[in-house]
Amino acid sequence: MKRIFIFSMLFLISFITNSQNLKYRSVDYYFSILKKAEIKESQDRGLLDGNLNIAKKYKKKAENGLNQAGQDLYLNIKMNLLKTYFKDYLYQQHINYKNETYVLYFSMAGFDDTEWCILKWKRGKWKNLERIDKQLVENVRNKKDESANFNFVCFNYDEGPKNIDGIKIFVKKHYLIMQRGGLYHSLIDLERDKILINEESPMHASNSKNKTEMNIWIKKNLHDKIDKIIQ
């Protein structure tokens, strides 16, 4: 845990150092950082050797896989890193519209659920925050913290099948749109400050068995409706 804490602090310091000119960051950007940390921690904990091979004590006999002790150690490493990196929402993108700044943040929950939120600041008040505390966001969302200088806009997440490619927010006319996996997921009327279309959990709403079924539902019930409004 001590090594994880130290590595987390170095990660946070690097964030602060490079926070002057924030540019778009994909989900893969964060997954790449997490993967490097996972390899380093696996070496530090003795799961992998210097050549990235499974250590003998954690290797299945006659197989290139983890034995039960190795699986338990890997799960412990993975869960601790996930808790460390994704205790906050992480920056993906921001855009300005009139007197306000809208920021898209990404995080993970549990072992592999992915989640996004859009937050809003008065223009000039957002200070290039590369991460923001999840509990603070939740408090603002539930109107339990009136001292925060931002407003909650919307939230959605994926569990099971995921649309994590090509994630972005953009403005067309007076609408803010969130797009994931080539499909529109959310529509906010910026003039009325109102969510018009957003499904927090497309997987649950569609009762889908796989990603193909889910995306068919998203296209019909979210994307096509949003596309019609913004044309």
From TrEMBL:
The highest taxon in the source lineage is: Bacteria
Upper lineage ranks? Bacteria, Pseudomonadati, Bacteroidota, Flavobacteriia, Flavobacteriales
Q: What is this protein called?
A: Uncharacterized protein
